[in-house]
Every structure is written in C-alpha cells, then in structure tokens.
Amino acid sequence: MSDLQAPLRPKRKKGLVDFLVQFRWIFVIFFVLPFSALYYFLIYLGDVRSEMKSYKQRQKEHDENVLKVVKRLKQRNPKKDGLVCTARKPWIAVGMRNVDYKRARHYEVDLSAFRNILEIDKQRMIARVEPLVNMGQITRVTVPMNLSLAVVAELDDLTVGGLINGYGIEGSSHIYGLFSDTVVAYEIVLADGRVVRATKDNEYSDLFYAIPWSQGTLGFLVAAEIKLIPVKEYMRLTYTPVVGNLQDLAQGYMDSFAPRDGDQDNPEKVPDFVEGMVYSPTEGVFMTGRYASKEEAKKKGNKINNVGWWFKPWFYQHAQTALKKGEFVEYIPTREYYHRHTRCLYWEGKLILPFGDQWWFRFLLGWLMPPKVSLLKATQGESIRNYYHDMHVIQDMLVPLYKVGDALEWVHHEMEIYPIWLCPHRLFKLPVKTMVYPEPGFEQHHRQGDTPYAQMFTDVGVYYAPGPVLRGEVFDGAEAVRKLEQWLIKNHSFQPQYAVSELNEKDFWRMFDADLYEHVRRKYGAVGTFMSVYYKSKKGRKTEKEVQEAEQAHLETAYAEADY
Q: Where are the transmembrane segments (predicted)?
C-alpha cells in the first residue's frame, strides 16, 4: 500500500451519548476508582490468606472444589437445561466482547473458588495454578524467588484461564511463544464429569493441543502446570527511537530483536524482552530488555526507574521521550517492568480520564489507578457500550513478522489509531494443526525472525479512538472491523477472540482451522454440552434455538466448505 492518505469523511452529528461519554470521567473519579481500589484491596487480602495456607491445604480445597464441579455437571438434564457455561457475570471478563451467549438459557457451573496457586515446584520449574489466578497474584509470589512464568501478560487482572482458553502474549513471546505454549499440562473436567490430565505426550494429547483458543468450549479448565524460568531483580531496558515511514518503522522493529543473519536462537543477539510503540506514521520507539542483577543495576552511573510508583509518568509517555532525547538505557525492577502498562491500561487511561496523566492527578489520585475494567463495563449501560463498539477500537492483529509494515499501513489508512503496540511472538510448528498455525512452507523462505521450527509473528495492538472519531467525523466501527478481519484472513493472520468480532461462521473458520477442534469436541462429548467457540465469540444475542441448530451443524461437517 503506497497511498497513506486517509479518506475524507463528513462530520458526525453528536447526541446525548457523546455527552455522557465525554463527561464519564466524573463518574469514574467519584465511583469507579474508589470502588476499584476497595475491590483490589479485598482481592489482595484474599490472595494473602491463600498464600498463608500450606500447599497441602490448597490441594485439598482444590480437590473438593473439583468434585463440586463434577457433581454439578452430572446433575444437568440435557433435555431440560441449557448448554453449560460458567456462573461468572458477563461484565467481569476483561475482554471487550459482549458476553451475549449468557443471555440465552444456560446451565451455570460456579468456578469462582479456583483462584489459588497450588504449588511452586522449583525442581521441575513448574507453577501449578488454578484458572482464576491472575498475573499480579503470581508475580507477587514468584518474582521474590527470582522465578517467573516464561510469559507474563502485562495487565495484573488477566487470568491464567483467560490467557489459556483465549490468548496471551508478552515481550518474551519471541522466545517462548504465546502463553499457552508455556503450559505443560492441563487438568480438565470433561462434559461427562471425568477429570483428566492432558499433556502433549499422554493419551489426551489431542485435547492438550485443542484447548488453546477454544474459549472453554471443550471442558472446564480447573488447573494448569506452567513453565517457570529463572529471572533477576532488574530489567535493563534500552529505548531506541526510529524515524521514517511505516515500512521503515517496521524494519527498525524487526532489527531490534531478529538478527538478519538468522541466528534467532543466539541469546547474545536476541534480547529477553521486546516491545514497540508506533506513535505516528513517522515515529516509533522500540524497547529491548535483558535481565540484570541488583549489583549491576546499582553500579555507579546506572539509572534505576521505579515505574510502578503511582506518581510516575505513564509508561508509554515515558518511552516516547526517547524521540526527543535519543536512545537511553535504564534499569527497572523486574515485577514493575512486567506490569508497566497496568496503571494506564496501555493508553486507554487517557480516554477514560483525559487528565489522568497530568502530574497533579498522578500525585493526588494516581494511587487509585487503574479503574477496574469489570467495573467500567458494569456501569456503562447499553447505549455507552454500543457507542464504544462503534466509535472505539480494541483489536489485536496477529500477523507474520514480514507483514508488519503492511499491517501498520492498513491501520493508518482505515483507522488512524496511534499509538500502536507491537509485540513479537513465535508460532510453533506442532505435531497437529491447531486453530492457529504458521504459514505452510514458511521455513523454506528463511525470513527474518523465522526458524525451522517456528514462524515469527507480531501482535499489532490497536487500542484507542480512531482519528475520524477524535476529529468529530463519521466512522463506521463495525465496517472497519469487518475490513480488518478480511485483511487478516487474506494475510494468514488471526484475531484474538476477546475482541468484538463481525465474522460470520464461514469466515471464522477461514481464519481458524476447525479440524482438531471439531474432532476433540465430538470425541470428548462437548457437542450438546458446551457452546461452540464460534457461537460463544459471535457478536449479538444467541437464542437457544440458534445454538441448538448450530450444534447440529457441527455434526455435519459444516466447516469443510471453508475457502482458503
């Protein structure tokens, strides 16, 4: 794409909803922030209480809770009760997709008790955790031990279950892959009440490979064993500014972590962490991090930046200063680095609280940040929710690394959203074809970042109000998402299902591969018990009749018609 000129759009007439959104910060300050702080504090007390229990006690409680889930499933009458789903309220989920499937008749199973860290096994380098354990909780336990999950998603509230059943990524994913690639075993309650442990090399290996991206539609995840890695106390972070057109920025991003000689597995050439932020069509900052000891960080002349303090500038704005002062290096405490985007929710905080980044707000009320996403969703109402779907974008585009420049140009032309987040991740060649998979024959091209066993992809994170909306122009959010999805399909790219989707069923299965997923659903009795992943992700209300008809279609090879 050579023409980056955005289309001319007419002005949009504003209504009452625009007024409510513009001044929603008043409600956020006086209601959402205080209640968020109270909620976080109560959750913290619960986590501390859990950590005070012995691993033996936690395991005993886990076993008891699993039996409750099994009992509840066996009490279901398939002829009278609806399809099975969790009892969690729709607004609690961090994702922006409407949980409309719970508006149809359904059979609820309560998983709210599954929020304990069951074991930190230092010999096996495994953390065994329950699905509602979140990133903030687990880093609070592991980092003081100089241990960490191999992939730690940035926001504190993101849970293990959501990152496995959906998708999860972090700046270390160019080494370890997506969050689900770091899991070594799943404990699953199947539709018939059986409790199984699935690994890549036992009798449930097909289930093991099918769980990621399945959105909990194959069974209930009740525990996971996740890879741990040794870490040091600090992250040595280098901020490198790049100026040029979008293709130049994409190349600078690639060069920051992917050696041009193809030596992608050489730790001397490949950093531990990578992240990029594109601030405009001509400016970006790319950050590379390496773990560092406290002795190194505290050497004379080294700068330590505690980015986690409430009064500190928001991280994305701090990184942007590299565009003025040039490349610089600093040391950040490891746990604070992991959660660097939590306080400002990347840059979404600027829309929620337009003055939230100002020094006076950070000093006086910054300690209340961030507002809890679930409370924001619970209090926004139908009209504001629809407004955000139409006038606001939260999408991730998982694209092959060599197509990042094209993706940036597409986003600029169609949405004009900045900043844009860039985070690389490996997509591994697996023994079976899963819902997301590398391009066939990618290893023959020897492209930058690729290895014989994995193709390098990048998450192009598009989060903010589009340029036309900020200028008061007409913008069709649904149409923009439809165009985005078609671009992804044509470019062998993927859309995480937490986001609002406009895909019809045929296009959904053009984007994702259905074979293993459908095989596992039939083999383990999920059909007729759990809703299919498409209907769980689909935008709009789901009636029971619609779901039943869709379930019947799953039995009739409906997805063999997918066009590639």
A: 21-42
3-state secondary structure of 438: coil
Rg (CA), the chain: 23
Cβ–Cβ < 8 Å for 150, 180 = no
SS3 track for 54-93: CHHHHHHHHHHHHHHHHHHHHCCCCCCCCEEEECCCHHHC
Residue 252 · residue 295 · CB < 8 Å: no
Say whether both 66 and 189 belong to one domain: yes
Residues of the chain whose pLDDT is less than 70?
Answer: 1-7, 90-105, 539-564
Q: Which amino acid is at 244?
A: G
Q: Give the range of the structural domain holding residue 279, as residue numbers without chain letter.
A: 234-385
DSSP annotation string for 278-347: EEETTEEEEEEEEEE-HHHHTSTT--B--TTSTTSPPHHHHHHTHHHH--EEEEEEHHHHHTTTTTTTTT
* Same-domain pairing of 198 and 62: yes
Pair (200, 257) in one structural domain:
no
pLDDT of residue 404: 98
3-state secondary structure 221-277: EEEEEEEEEECCCEEEEEEEEEECCHHHHHHHHHHCCCCCCCCCCCCCCCCCEEEEE
Nearest to 530 by CA among 222, 66, 218, 164: 218
pLDDT at position 64 is 96
Could you give the CA distance from residue 292 to residue 276 in angstroms, rounded to a whole number? 21
d(CA 124, CA 119): 11
**502: three-class secondary structure by DSSP:** coil
Structure tokens at 489: 């399909």
pLDDT of 542 reads 52
Neighbour-count burial of 274, counting CB atoms closer than 10 A to its CB (0-12 exposed, 13-18 middle, 19+ buried): buried
314 and 446, same domain (yes or no): no
CA distances (Å), origin 83, targets 74, 102, 105, 108, 196: 13, 10, 7, 8, 21
Tell me: do 295 and 438 sit in the same domain.
Answer: no
d(CA 419, CA 338): 19
Question: Total structural domains in the chain?
Answer: 3
